[in-house]
Amino acid sequence: MIQQTTLQRSTILGVGSHVPANVVTNHDLSRIMDTSDEWIVQRTGIRQRYWVDPGTSTSDLALEASRRALSAAGIQAQELDCIILATLSPDHEFPGTGCFLQAKLGVPGIPALDIRQQCTGFVYGMSIADQFIRTGMYRKVLVVGAEVHSKGLDRTTRGRDVSVLFGDGAGAVVMGRAEPGEESLFCSSHLHADGNYARELWIESPGMAAHGDCHPTPEQTARGAHYPAMNGKAVFMHASKRMPEAVMEALQANGKTVADVDLFVFHQANLRINEMVAKQLGIPEEKVFNTIDRFANTTAATLPIGLDEAIRAGKLKKGMLVACAAFGSGFTWGSALFRW
Ligand code: ACO
Questions:
Q1: 330: CA distance to ligand 1 center in Å?
Q2: Are both 10-177 and 186-289+297-339 of the same fold?
Q3: pTM of the predicted protein model
Q4: Which of 34, 38, 185, 300 is deepest in the core (most CB within 10 A)?
């Protein structure tokens, strides 16, 4: 007879984040490309971002954020059962950046998994960790979102529509089993993608598609196909529709309403998108925690950076119900609801 097992529930044990030391203001950008502080602030809410120095990689930022998350969780790296790392700016084409992070953390042997869901990567990562913990396969999982965007941006006027939006940074959480009766609980996660929009926000080359050689052709290099390209209006339109849907999906799955949520931490693509999401859902301004003015868009790292900053700002406290939602390249989108 197959023995019935009760599913474990998971919780977030600790969070940490890290950004490089170099602040790059909008004024700094206006010295290297035709842009202005006024244009960037009005359209996006961004005032500054952090960019790495040439010797720093994505796994370096991930390492610092992971150490802080481990410390907040009160555990050693050796107690981890698995590493999940979300990034669109890997150290190398392969192997995955999770492997480089694992070596730097000094924990050989445990699985290290990279996921490529861009701005929704951290929600996907938490969801995968939650499934591993619920089934009893792993007890403690490190979930990291880390990006070094600055090295891959077209920092000239040609690339200004994209390059002003992104910053470097990393954030991490340690997820683990919730003890019976524990108040802190990961309630649920909800994941989506629509590949019909894959080319609306992407890097065309290098890659194995189409022309038979993974390197950009001279024609692709000349038109900057190796830099990120974005249909800003399409992203705006879809993000402001999908994020409210994802929030409502999480609330309905748990029998909650917008009013039950104490704090909303959304992906930081654009302040205007988040203001529209809040307006559509009737969320009061003080319940939305934004960081885009200081960090810009750090893609997979925006949510854990947001959680960590919310704790430091005294906005996130034990027992609060938190809703996260994200939208990004793919298109991908999703949400997570948890009791802190
Ligand atoms: N500085 C100054 N001028 C600029 C810049 C810049 N950095 N970038 C573009 N412009 C110019 C354009 O060339 C254009 O000039 P023109 O009228 O002479 O042709 C003008 O500004 C308006 O350009 P639009 O692209 O129409 O500007 P729009 O009002 O759509 O704003 C923006 C662009 C902010 C990107 C907007 O489309 C948007 O918010 N989209 C959402 C996408 C987003 O936030 N992405 C974040 C990353 S993706 C993610 O995380 C999900």
A1: 19
A2: yes
A3: 0.95
A4: 300
> Is residue 39 lining ligand 1, measured as CB closer than 6 Å?
yes
pLDDT-wise least confident of 50-64, 214-228, 304-318:
214-228
Determine the distance separating the centroid of ligand 1 and the alpha carbon of 161, expressed in angstroms: 5
Which residue among the candidates 82, 99, 119, 324 is catalytic per the annotation?
119
Q: DSSP secondary-structure letter at 259?
A: G
Domain limits, the chain: 10-177, 186-289+297-339
Q: Which two tokens stand for residue 248?
A: 């409502």
Strand partners, 113: 84
The confidence score (pLDDT) of residue 3 equals 46
269 lines ligand 1 (CB under 6 A): yes
Distance between CA atoms of residues 328 and 312, nearest Å: 26
Length of the chain: 340
Q: Which fold has domain 186-289+297-339?
A: Peroxisomal Thiolase; Chain A, domain 1 (3.40.47)
> Closest ligand 1 atom to the C-alpha of 236?
41
Give 10-177's CATH code, choosing from 3.40.47.10, 3.30.750.24, 3.40.50.10610, 3.50.90.10: 3.40.47.10
Residue with tokens 């704790």: 311
Give residue-wise pLDDT tens across range 106-135: 999 999 999 999 999 999 999 999 999 999
Cα 257 from chain centre? 25
Residue with tokens 């050796």: 78
Start-to-end CA span in the chain (Å):
38
Q: How do residues 32-44 score in pLDDT, each as one tens digit? A: 999 999 999 999 9
Q: Is 267 a catalytic residue?
A: yes
In one letter, which amino acid is 276? M
Active site residue 324: no
